[in-house]
Design brief:
Blueprint lengths: L10 H25 L10 H23 L8 H16 L11 H40 L1 H13 L4 H12 L6 H17 L4 H6 L2 H4 L7 H27 L2 H13 L5 H16 L4 H12 L6 H13 L6 H11 L6 H18 L3 H4 L1 H5 L8 H16 L7
């Protein structure tokens, strides 16, 4: 499948798509594993949520890893949908033209073994929960004949073999059990056994107020609903917190600056980052943070020279701000210490451009500084001397401000 036709969205939105699809996929996988074993009430077990979190983290990690290995782009909506919904098939060998990085299957085997172990522990815990609910119903049947008759009526009307149930109850009565309390318990458990063979018998018992009384919390269905609602609220709170954090101006500045320097992103993604940063550069309060973030980006090791040009162009677009000149020039002068000679040369050209705006006679008055060519190579001490000269020039009062 050609993913190049996919809409180019902000990477944060694409990761949100993977997250949402991962929730659906993780829920489906859990239901599939437990329903094959006819297990209910598994959402009550904390370890179930651990497995859910693992299933949710896998597509997010896979999407991130495949982007870092240039198998896809983290601004591709179609790729986000495919990874979020079909990551089991992708890990199994590929889906829709997307294949997992080689060697990842071996990394996932220990994780699969761990989840299998956790699932087994969940099954044992659910069995204990079901036994507790059975004991609760049997206990109410033993101490209240009206409840006993009600549950017996539910068992007979629920599609079970009522004749077989009556025969087994008669066999128990004729078994010679002298302890009446023990006989009553055996009869109650036999009725519960027949009732548990009904589809949705838990819902039938939970909905019967006469059987449950005021002890509705003992129902696994009610407890599951409460736990799921609490987890939904928790998830929504985490999502809201994430949205608040990632949309804060200082975080947004750092994020968009990183997008500009990201090696394998698209031109549209870089354009989007540049357009988002420009308003911050024009803001009197947020401008300093934006300048500092972009200046740090120029010093990043291995930053391609075309990205250096992009950052410098962006900085110069906002040079008319009152706080701009001194701050920009100060950051750029310090950036002359960048390892790349090509980047240093670009910064020197930018400083000359700004110096001429500050002093129209700059090239005549400062011939040596204006003619310095960093590509010729400089020793550490020589470079520091040029930096000192630039700082001395920009600390003087400007001759003409344009």
């Amino acid at each position: 499948m050609d993913l190049s036709i996919s809409p180019d969205w902000d990477a944060r939105l694409c990761y949100a798509v993977v997250f949402a699809c991962g929730i659906i996929s993780a829920q489906f996988q859990l239901y599939k594993r437990f329903q094959d074993l006819k297990i209910t009430g598994f959402w009550l077990v904390p370890n179930t949520w651990l497995v859910f979190a693992i299933y949710l983290a896998i597509p997010l990690g896979l999407f991130w890893l495949m982007d870092r290995m240039s198998a896809l782009n983290d601004t591709s909506l179609f790729a986000a949908l495919l990874v979020g919904l079909a990551y089991p098939a992708i890990l199994a060998g590929g889906f829709g033209g997307i294949k997992a990085p080689s060697g990842l299957d071996g990394m996932l085997k220990p994780l699969e073994a761990f989840t299998d172990t956790v699932i087994k522990s969940v099954i044992k815990t659910v069995a204990r929960y079901e036994k507790r609910f059975e004991d609760f119903i049997v206990g109410r049947m033993r101490f209240d004949k009206a409840i006993f008759d009600e549950v017996l009526g539910l068992a007979k009307s629920g599609g079970s073999d009522s004749a077989a149930l009556d025969d087994q109850l008669k066999d128990l009565d004729g078994a010679g059990i002298s302890d009446s309390s023990l006989l009553l318990e055996k009869r109650a458990r036999l009725i519960y056994l027949y009732l548990s063979a009904m589809p949705d018998f838990l819902a039938t018992l939970t909905g019967n107020r006469k059987v449950m009384g005021k002890r509705i919390w003992n129902s696994p269905i009610i407890r599951t609903r409460v736990v799921v609602c609490v987890m939904i609220v928790l998830f929504c709170s985490l999502i809201s917190t994430g949205i608040y954090v990632f949309t804060r101006p200082t975080v947004a500045i750092a994020y968009h600056t990183w997008r500009i320097g990201k090696p394998n992103n698209s031109e549209r993604d870089r354009f989007r980052a540049r357009e988002n940063l420009l308003p911050y550069l024009h803001d009197a309060q947020l401008g300093p943070d934006a300048y500092q973030s972009l200046a740090r980006a120029i010093r990043s090791p291995g930053l391609p020279i075309e990205r250096v040009d992009l950052v410098l162009q962006l900085l110069l677009q906002a040079r008319d701000q009152q706080f701009h000149q001194d701050m920009l020039c100060n950051h750029l002068v310090n950036n002359l210490r960048v390892e790349s000679v090509d980047a240093r040369s670009r910064i020197q050209q930018t400083l000359v451009f700004l110096a001429e705006k500050r002093d129209p006679q700059f090239k005549q008055n400062q011939k040596a500084l204006a003619g310095w060519n960093p590509t010729n190579g400089d020793s550490v001490t020589s470079l520091e001397d040029w930096i000192g000269q630039w700082k001395a020039f920009f600390t003087k009062e400007p001759t003409t401000a344009k």
